[in-house]
Amino acid sequence: MNKLDEAEKYIKANKERLNKQYRLEYHLMGEYGWINDPNGFIQYKGKYHLFYQHYPFDAVWGPMHWGHAISEDLIKWHYAPLALAPDEEYDKDGCFSGSAIEKDDKLYLVYTGNIHTGADGGEYKQVQNLAYSEDGVHFKKYDKNPVIGQEQIPERASKRDFRDPKVFKKGQYYYVVLGSNDGMGNGQVLLYRSLDLKQWEFVNILAKGDETMGYNWECPDLFELDGKGVLIVSAQHMKARGNDFNNPNSVIYFIGDLDIEKGVFQLGDCHAVDYGFDFYAPQTTLDKLGRRLIVAWMDMWEMPMPTQERGHNWAGAMTLPREIVRVGDRLYFKPIEEIKNYRKNHYHLRNIKINGEKYLDTISECYELEIEFDAGEAREFGVKVRKGKEEETILCYSRDESLFIFNRDKSGIGPKGERKTNIALKNNKLKLRIFVDRCSVEVFINDGEKTMTGRIYPGKESLNISVFSKGECSITRLDKWDIAVLP
Ligand code: FRU
C-alpha cells in the first residue's frame, strides 16, 4: 500500500479512539493525530481549501504529511483525503509547509521537501516541490521535482533552512517568498520568480531582520493591501521587547514599500500580529470577495500541549479565520462575518452598572461574547470566562497601566501565565469580541486593533461567565451567543 493510503487507513481505523473532551466546536483540527501550520490556503472553484502540516499516526510531530479540509464558509470544514505523504527521495523526511495557487483550472501546491542528511535528523537540507490536481482533491507530484533545488540558494543564505514557499502571481510572473536566514543569526526572506511554476530564478534577498528579530524566519507571506506591501514572518526566538514577543517564537508584520521587480521590500516598523500565547505560522489568501484572510496554527512550539496526553490522541488546531484590514500603518484583524451564521441562543444585557463581580445568569462552553464597557470610575474591569469552583480565565483592562491582560494562571490544566498589551480607551470605552471554544480563547479588542489568542484547558464544569470591576463602571451592552457548528 502506498504511504498516502496507509495514513488514510490508519486515521479511519483509529478516529473512534479520540477523547472528545477538548475537541473544538468551530475551529479546524486534524481528524486524528498531530497538526501544525496551515498550508495551501485558497479559494478554488468556489470552495475554501485549507491544508495543514499533519502527522496522523500519533499526537506528536513526525514525518510531515499534508492534511486537507474543504469548506463553503470557512467555519464548517469537511475532511478530504490527505493530499501529500513523504514518499519520494526529495521529500522523504517530510512534506513541509507550502501554499497553493490556481493555474489553467488546476490547483497547484508548492511545498518544501525535507531531507535528513545525518542519522539523527539534526542535519537536513530542504528543496521546493510542486504537486497538482485537476479536481482539488487528488494530487500528483510533478515528475521533475524539485523545482527549486539547493544549487539555487544564493550566497549569504543558509543551506539548511530554506523552506515554506508562499506563491502568488503578479503581472506575468509567479513568485515565491521563502523562509531563510543569513547563517549568522538573522532571519531573512528569499524571492524567486517563474513563468510556469516549474522553472524558477532567484530574484533577491527581499528583506532581512536584525539580531533581535529571530535567528530564522519561517512561513513568510507577502501581499499588497490598499497600495502598500505587507510582509508577515514567523520569527524563531524573537527577543522580547517589554510586553511584546514573550513567547518562544513570534509572528511579526511589516508594512512597507515593495519593489517586486528588484525584489526589494523596505521594512517599516515591526509589530506583532497577535498579542496572546498561541498564534504561529499563519498563512493568508485573497478570496473572491476581495478579503485578505489569515489563519494561524493556534499553538506554540516548545510549549506543553495537554491533548498529547491521557489518551486524547490529537494535538494542534487552527485559529478562527480572520480578515486583515489596513488602518494607516497598522493592521487590524477581524473575525470573519460567516461566524455570525452559527450564533444560537442570544443572551443580552444593556446599560448595567457593576462594582465588584457579577455572574451572568447563563452558562456555556462554546460561545461568542460582545461587550462594550464604559470605564466610568473603575481602575480595572473585565470578564472571566470558563469559570468554575477553582478555575477562571481572566480578560481584564487595567486603567492605570493602559494594558489589556489575558491571564490563564487558573484556566485549568495546560500552560499558565499572562500576556499584556497596550490599549488606549476610546471616549473612555473598551469594546471586546471574545470567542470561547472547548480549549481556546480569542479576543478581538476595539474592532480588531489588537487580538490575543490562547489555548486553555478547563474542566467540564467550568462554564460560568462573570463581569467584574474595581470601582464603578458600566456595561453599555453585552451580547452572548452560543456557537454551534457540529450536528
Ligand atoms: C513552522 C515550521 C515550518 C516547517 C513546518 C514543519 O511551524 O517549522 O517552518 O515547514 O513547521 O512542520
UniProtKB/TrEMBL annotation:
- List the SUPFAM superfamilies: Arabinanase/levansucrase/invertase, Concanavalin A-like lectins/glucanases
> What are its GO cellular component terms?
cytoplasm
Q: Which residues form the Glycosyl hydrolase family 32 N-terminal domain?
A: 27-335
For this UniProt entry, what is the primary localization, expressed as one broad class? Answer: cytoplasm
Q: Which GO terms describe its biological process?
A: sucrose metabolic process
- What job does the chain carry out? Enables the bacterium to metabolize sucrose as a sole carbon source.
Q: Which GO terms describe its molecular function?
A: beta-fructofuranosidase activity
Membrane-spanning ranges: none
- State the UniProt keywords alphabetically: Carbohydrate metabolism, Cytoplasm, Glycosidase, Hydrolase
Organism classification, top ranks?
A: Bacteria, Bacillati, Bacillota, Clostridia, Thermoanaerobacterales
Family listed: Belongs to the glycosyl hydrolase 32 family.
Glycosyl hydrolase family 32 C-terminal domain: residues covered = 339-481
Q: Which InterPro entries match?
A: ConA-like_dom_sf, GH32_Enzymes, Glyco_hydro_32, Glyco_hydro_32_C, Glyco_hydro_32_N, Glyco_hydro_beta-prop_sf, Suc6P_hydrolase
* Reaction(s) catalysed by this chain's protein: Hydrolysis of terminal non-reducing beta-D-fructofuranoside residues in beta-D-fructofuranosides
* Gene3D superfamilies reported for this sequence: Exo-inulinase, domain 1, Glycosyl hydrolase domain, family 43
Q: In which pathway does it act?
A: Glycan biosynthesis; sucrose metabolism
SMART domains under this entry?
A: Glyco_32
Under the heading NCBIfam families, the entry gives:
scrB_fam
Write the Enzyme Commission number(s) for this entry.
Answer: 3.2.1.26
Q: Could you name the domain of life of the organism this protein comes from?
A: Bacteria
* Protein's recorded name: Sucrose-6-phosphate hydrolase
